[in-house]
């Protein structure tokens, strides 16, 4: 006996927890004979549909409209709300003869990817801290058996053993925010070198002291990186503006304190662009509808 298909509200909760792009389609009006009543909902992803608005051509047109928004013009989901009108005897060619409006809300999923290199004490605390933020976390370490057991149960977290740092960097999606904090300075330097050579990382943070960065900076310059590229690396991480523009971090060097300062520094870098004054549906469209 097959399992009962997932209902729309269960699918909506799961997909939002997992950070998967999806759309929620809600029937908001009904006139004449229609397959479902106002309030009926379905959830749509690029490759699955959960629940139904009644079936038929009208439903397939709703799915196509939602997937067009999920694909976007540039391959990225277009977040926001749109209103689709269906005449079941006209646009949809169904014999019901009714009329419905469907509100389509597109949720882009996790728009931020954090690549974390190093599963030591600070790395583990960072992984815990960012879990509620809705980011996709790609957690790498070149050692075997170092990821904590709880990591396998976290949504949006992928533990990736990475014996080859350059291969791990090459597999990252464009625009990832990267934090480098492995157990080995040579591996840290190889990772920063590879990340700078990619040239498309949203930000790069390196754990360590000013003396460590001075050594790395010299070697990375010798490897061909110019000053503009080197200026993109934050090291030490988690520094706050102090008196007269100085940079400082509190004296607490416990892993949680360092992780907290690092995430606090990262938050403004991943903040969404400022939203426009008007959001959602155009007011004239709503007046015509209601």
From TrEMBL:
One family name in Pfam for this protein: XdhC_CoxI
InterPro entries: MoCofactor_Util/Proc, Xanthine_DH_XdhC, XdhC_CoxI, XdhC_Rossmann_dom
Domain XdhC- CoxI: 16-72
Residue intervals of the XdhC Rossmann domain: 114-266
Protein name as it appears in the record: Xanthine dehydrogenase accessory protein XdhC
Organism annotation: Halomonas icarae
């Amino acid at each position: 006996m097959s399992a009962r298909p997932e209902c729309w509200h269960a699918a909506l909760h799961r997909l939002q927890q997992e950070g998967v792009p999806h759309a929620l389609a809600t029937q908001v009006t009904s006139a004449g004979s229609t397959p479902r009543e106002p309030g009926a909902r379905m959830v749509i992803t690029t490759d699955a549909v959960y629940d139904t608005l009644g079936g038929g051509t009208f439903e397939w047109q709703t799915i196509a409209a939602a997937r067009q928004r999920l694909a976007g013009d540039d391959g990225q989901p277009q977040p926001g709300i749109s209103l689709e009108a269906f005449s079941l005897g006209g646009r949809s060619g169904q014999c019901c003869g009714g009329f419905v409006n469907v509100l389509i809300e597109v949720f882009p999923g996790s728009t931020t990817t954090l690549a974390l290199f190093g599963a030591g004490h600070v790395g583990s605390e960072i992984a815990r801290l960012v879990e509620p933020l809705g980011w996709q976390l790609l957690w790498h370490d070149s050692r075997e058996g170092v990821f904590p057991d709880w990591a396998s149960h976290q949504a949006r977290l992928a533990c990736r053993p990475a014996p080859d740092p350059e291969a791990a960097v090459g597999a990252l999606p464009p625009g990832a925010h990267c934090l480098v904090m492995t157990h080995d300075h040579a591996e840290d330097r190889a990772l920063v070198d590879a990340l700078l050579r990619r040239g498309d990382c949203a930000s790069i943070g390196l754990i360590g002291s000013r003396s460590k960065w001075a050594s790395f900076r010299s070697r990375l310059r010798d490897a061909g990186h110019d000053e503009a590229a080197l200026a993109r690396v934050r090291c030490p991480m988690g520094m706050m503006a102090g008196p007269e523009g100085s940079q400082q971090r509190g004296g607490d060097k416990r892993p949680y304190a360092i992780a907290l300062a690092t995430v606090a520094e990262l938050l403004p870098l991943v903040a969404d662009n400022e939203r426009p004054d008007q959001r959602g549906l155009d007011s004239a469209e709503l007046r015509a509808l209601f």
